[in-house]
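Entry type: protein chain
Record version: 2
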Amino acid sequence: MADPKGFLTTPREEWPRRPVEERVRDWNEVYVPGALLPIISRQANRCMDCGVPFCHDACPLGNLIPEWNGLVSREDWRAASDRLHATNNFPEFTGRLCPAPCEAGCVLAINQPAVTIKNVEVAIADRAWEEGFAPPRAPERLSGRTVAVVGSGPAGLAAAQQLTRAGHTVAVYERADRIGGLLRYGIPAFKMEKRHLDRRLEQMRAEGTRFRTSTTVGKDVGAEELRARHDAMVIATGATAWRELDVPGRGLAGIQQAMEYLPLADRVCEGDLEVSPLSAAGKHVVIVGGGDTGADCLGTAVREGAASVTQLDIYPQPEAERDADSEPWPTYPKIYRLSAAHEEARDLRTAPAADADARLFAASTLRFTGDANGHVRALHLVEVDERRRPLPDSGRTLPADLVLLALGFSGPDRADGLINQLGLALDARGTIARDEGFATNVPGVYAAGDAARGQSLIVWAIAEGRSVAAAVDRRLTGGASRLPAPIGPYDRPMKV
C-alpha cells in the first residue's frame, strides 16, 4: 500500500474516450491513446490493500489485484507484469473486454467509487509488451504427449498456452480462416483492435503451439479420428447456438442474427471485404436484445452510417446505483451503464424516441411486417411489466429495414457433428456434461469454456482454460500438475 490515504484524497478517474464525432468515423479503439499512463499510478494508489480483498473472489482468475496495484503505484512495471501474468494469460484482452466484476467486489465500492482495476490491468499489459516483459516461454523439455484443442476462443487459447508451456505438443483446431473465435469475428475492433490478438498468437507460436485454421472438426476431420491421433482432447468450441425469436414475420428478409452481422464488419476491418453485405448504411436498424452483443451491434451500425438505430431491452431500466437489499456488495449489480456505443448513440441521437441513449426498456417484440418484396419494414412492440406482461395501450411501431437479434446463446452448435461423433453427453441446459475434473463421458476428452459452462464472461473462459489444462496435465503426467486451476467446473459468480 503506497499511499495509506490515496483512496481518501484521489478521486476515481477513468481512461478518457476520444470525442464521439471523431471515433465513429473509424474502427480504432475508443480510448485516447497514451492518456492512461499519466493517471494510472495515482489510480493504483487508491487501492486500500484490504486485509480480505474481495476483488480476488469476484474475479474467477484469482488475480492478485492489491499486489499489482501496489507495484504500479511505485511504477515497478516488470514486477507488476509478473504478478499479473501469474494468473491471467491474456490481460490485454480482459483489460479491454471484461465488465470488471472485480470492481464490483472492491471493498472501496461499499461507499465510494471502486478502484479502476480494469484500467490498471490494461496499462500493465500494454506496458509489458512495450518493454519486452512478455517474451515467449517455451518449455525446457517436451513430454512426448499430444493434445488437440478444438476451438480458439479465450478458453481454448488459455488451455493451449498452459499445456504447451507444460511441455505437451498442442494443436489448436479452428473452423474459421483465422484464429481467435469471437475475439476475431464477433468483438468489434473499436472494443479491441486485432493487433492485440495477433501479437499474443505470435507469442504462442514461438512457444510451440500449432494452429490449424479452416478445419471444422466433425466435417473436415472426423472427431474420432482426431481423438485417436492425440493423447487428450479439449472441446472449447463456445456456445454458438444462438437463441431465436419466434414471432410472426420472423421469416422476412433483413432479419439477421447478431453473429451473422458482426463477423462481416470484422472482415471489413481485416481487409477481406470492401463493404459488408449486411451493412447498416442508410437503414433504420432495430436491435432486439439489451446485452453486450446488442451494444456491439449498436456501435457497429453507427459506424456504418445507419439512418437510425434503436436497441430493445425487455428488462426495465435499471437504477443508477446498486440496490443494497436485492444486490448487495460484493455481487455484480445490474445498474444503468453507459457503454461507449450507448454514449455515441446518445450524443448522435440515433433513436429520438428511445428512453435513454438508444435503448427502449421494458419492450417486447410482437411481430414484424414487411413490404411486397418480403423485406422487413417495421417492428411492432409492446411495453411490459416486470413479469413481462403486456401493458394496455402501449403498442408502438418502429421503422426497421434491418433487424438484428442479439438474444444470447443456448449452448454449443451441434451442426458440425463433433458432439454426435464422439457421443458426448449433454446436461439439461444443452451444454457438454463433465465431471469435477472437467472430463466428459468419453475417455480422454475434456470440455471447457462456454461449450460446457454456458454463455459467460471472458474471465470465466480464461479461468476454465487454465483449469482444464491442469486437469489434462494430471492425466498426461499421471500425477500432480504444477499448472494452476483457479476454478472448478461447478463454480459460479457470487450471487445473493
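Comment: The chain has three domains: 6-131, 146-240+410-477, 244-407.
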